[in-house]
């Protein structure tokens, strides 16, 4: 319940409106067995897209693990894919489908060249998994010299979280949090804060990312010879087994030497003090602080919210952008 009234008043209204609903002490329903069975694993699906997009997704059946994270820096999968001209973006994370079950997904937006080399991209993903299993997820990522790198990033995110633009969405989010295995006092912070480093759990997660237990989806407008059509949207597609020899290749890969485990983040802030000035007349426009034949730099100090956040915008002007329709 969210409102401007006092907590006592909100509580009173809840009691008045909902006290007639009896607590039947029913157990939380559980579902035995993951819905993604052997029939769906070791399959690759080719789907024809209407828009000019190309994509690749690897999917593993997972227990419900909550939010994970993705890395895009030097030595990451994405940095290598961009260097080869095969991909433009990558996202990775877990998704919940029902209580106790979910998926871990790696989604990559491909270039035309990346589509042609999709098997090499899949190899890179499994090489990175192999590297993580071999080296391990370094504890400094979670707790570097007690700076608690990953913990601090999440704590900063939670501390300076912007207000939701939709109160209805926020209370719905909080209500769903009450169904999660958090302590009641963590109902608000539970989805954000990371409290423990659990090497055993990390190893168990990595063991689930196997070459004999995933499904592959490819999307492109150029696919032909698709023998099935989806009932509701009419999407053309086909499903074929992944070549057993390719699965064997994935299982026997050695890590690519260009792939690296991320280094410690040296730029996590620790000082959040703001040089706040009272009774300041708000600036109506930014100040031009640098003006050269090649660059202009504008700056406006936050004089409204006084929070340790910065927004940086770049505008690059070049005639090459409009040289031809292909450039655009």
UniProtKB/TrEMBL annotation:
SUPFAM superfamilies cross-referenced by the UniProt entry: LuxS/MPP-like metallohydrolase (SSF63411)
Residues in Peptidase M16 C-terminal domain copies: 2-147
| Gene Ontology CC: one annotated term | cytosol
Please give the coiled-coil regions recorded for this protein.
none
Is Ribosomal protein a UniProt keyword of this protein? no
Query: What keywords tag this UniProt record?
Result: Hydrolase, Metal-binding, Metalloprotease, Protease, Zinc
> In which domain of life is the source organism classified?
Eukaryota
One short Pfam family name for this protein? Peptidase_M16_C
For this UniProt entry, the molecular function terms from Gene Ontology, in alphabetical order, are:
metal ion binding; metalloendopeptidase activity
Is Hydrolase among this UniProt entry's keywords? yes
Segments forming domain Peptidase M16 middle/third: 158-327
State any GO BP term from the record: peptide catabolic process
Q: Which InterPro entries match?
A: Metalloenz_LuxS/M16, Peptidase_M16, Peptidase_M16_C, Peptidase_M16_M
Which protein family is named in the record? Answer: Belongs to the peptidase M16 family.
Protein's UniProt name:
12068_t:CDS:1
Which species is the source of this protein? Answer: Acaulospora morrowiae
